[in-house]
Amino acid sequence: MENKVAFGIKGIEIVNSAIKAPTEVGKISNFNFEMKFQASVNPKDGILSVFADAVIKDLEINTQIGQYSALFHYSVSDLENVLIKSGPNQFEIPQPLLTTLLGISASTLRGLMFEAFKGTFLHDAILPVIDIMALQPELMPAPN
């Protein structure tokens, strides 16, 4: 990041953890993970939150077989001055900071999924590595 921004993880909330066992016995080998991210800010409290959602699909039968979502809360020093005000109660997060927080959120979500999938038919699923720079997330800033 060009300007150093001090931040830390304030908390992680698991929002959704669902696995739908296949109706037929057998190994599912063709998985797809659809990952989505949404960021929101609370400048006065210095909190930036990232919602990360992964929908897991069996590509052979085009069916959703799981979903895992988590909300990551980051405490950002001097957040009110870090954000770019784009309108009344609307803010833009500087791209370097957003890229860093999305990367941390994506990696942590993978770890949470890996742990949640142990002992299930998804245990051997290859979890995706995400190129955060290729993402163009739609940001929905939270009102003050």
What features would you describe in this structure?
The protein is built from two helices and six strands, in the order ββββαββα. By secondary structure, it is of the alpha+beta class. The chain has helices spanning 79-82, 95-117; strands at residues 7-19, 31-42, 47-58, 63-76, 84-87, 90-92. The strands form two sheets. Strands 1-4-3-2 form a four-stranded antiparallel β-sheet, covered by helices on one side. Strands 5-6 form a two-stranded antiparallel sheet. The radius of gyration is 17 Å and the shape is elongated. Residues 137-144 have low confidence and may be disordered. It has one domain (7-134): SecB-like (Bacterial Protein-export protein SecB), CATH 3.10.420.10.
Task: Find the CATH topology.
Answer: Bacterial Protein-export protein SecB
* Beta-strand percentage range: 35-45%
The total of beta strands comes to 6
The CA-CA distance between the termini, in Å, is 26 Å
Q: Over the alpha carbons, how many angstroms does the gyration radius reach?
A: 17 Å
* Low-pLDDT windows of residues: 137-144
In the CATH hierarchy, what is the superfamily?
Answer: SecB-like
Compressed to H and E, one letter per element, the order equals EEEEHEEH
Q: Provide the CATH architecture.
A: Roll
Largest sheet: 4 strands, antiparallel
Mean pLDDT: 85
Overall body shape? elongated
Q: Give the tally of structural domains.
A: 1
Helix content: 10-25%
